[in-house]
Design brief:
globular; mainly alpha
Length: 328
């Protein structure tokens, strides 16, 4: 296989250009303005980039699939609109969320249209791959919704197991990364086995990314993190860290942990410092890093097994490692 160039800057610019060229619709403006607003807020475009990089592993024609790759970006943003409503979140990417800028009903309906628009982008796939990709997209979309429901369920539960949490983040976050890679591989002509291994690579990386997010929320530099450090602690969010702290705490640590979790009135900074002190005593940071690295190592072992040009695989490795080293 002849090694062709993959230009990240060109890929990102092509994606942004195609986003600007998509006609989501015009009237009623209240329906379509929120879609354009959210899509124009930016983001890292990780998922469509993964489609293109995976496509490049098996084909020189990755650029022709830029429009189709945007299906995963539109779908991702659809989930953000609905997640923000469910979380009552006021801010997304530094700007008011759709339901805050307009209203909940408009946000729901605009989100629904975004899902349909994602399907419209899939129509651009070569016919010989269309039904295979569509079946896999259906499964991915269902699993993302299952993950969101599990996440909401956890808010009402007194206890969540490590297994339950890892399964939830697999569904809510990781399967879309896996699908993005599998999607790109399929339309690049990869074998079913290679495409599936790329899917598994993406899922393992996705779980590792979420565990890193859990860590960054607690142990990040505020200036680099871009949002409030300790937000998960303040909200009693059942992250990997809290779940393992609850499982391992004994004696005074257990008493203090339960005391802070039960308080309805508290100083946020004091609570964050107290919980972090308990985490440090229990070695929760190292425990989380070990689990995170398990998933990353498994992912890269899978990548070694994929039958593709080594130089092309280096593009995916470099992109993934860049994401791993992020601090926000």
């Amino acid at each position: 296989m002849k090694t062709a160039a993959f230009d990240f800057q060109q890929a990102v610019q092509s994606l942004e250009n195609e986003i600007q060229n998509i006609s989501f619709g015009e009237k009623p403006t209240e329906l379509y303005e929120p879609i354009r607003y959210l899509m124009d807020l930016g983001g890292k475009r990780i998922r469509p980039l993964l489609v293109l990089i995976a496509n490049y592993l098996f084909s020189d024609d990755w650029q022709k699939n830029t429009k189709a790759a945007l299906a995963v970006e539109i779908f991702h943003n659809f989930t953000l609109v609905h997640d923000d409503i469910m979380d009552n979140a006021p801010i997304r990417r530094g700007k008011p969320t759709v339901h805050e800028k307009w209203n909940r009903n408009t946000a729901l309906l605009s989100g629904d249209v975004m899902l349909v628009c994602a399907y419209k982008q899939l129509d651009l796939i070569d016919e010989k791959y269309f039904h295979t990709v569509l079946r896999k997209f259906h499964q991915c979309a269902i699993e993302v919704c299952e993950g969101q429901q599990f996440d909401m369920n956890f808010e009402k539960l007194d206890a969540v197991s490590e297994y339950e949490y890892l399964n939830m983040i697999r569904l809510k976050t990781a399967v879309l990364l896996g699908f993005s890679l599998e999607f790109g591989a399929i339309i690049g002509g990869a074998s079913a086995e290679n495409a599936r291994k790329l899917y598994d690579f993406g899922v393992n990386i996705g779980i590792g990314f979420q565990l890193k997010d859990d860590l960054l929320d607690v142990y990040s530099d505020q200036a680099k993190f871009g949002k409030q450090v300790g937000g998960d602690i303040i909200a009693n969010k059942k992250t990997f860290l809290l779940i393992n702290a609850l499982s391992n705490a004994q004696g005074e640590n257990q008493i203090q942990l339960q005391n802070w979790l039960g308080k309805e009135v508290f100083e946020a900074e004091e609570k964050v410092k107290a919980i972090i002190k308990i985490y440090d005593t229990l070695g929760i940071k190292q425990l989380t890093e070990n689990k995170m690295n398990e998933y990353f190592e498994k992912a890269f072992r899978l990548l070694d097994e994929i039958e593709a040009d080594k130089a092309r695989k280096e593009i995916l490795i470099a992109f993934t490692k860049d994401l791993l080293n992020r601090e926000k």
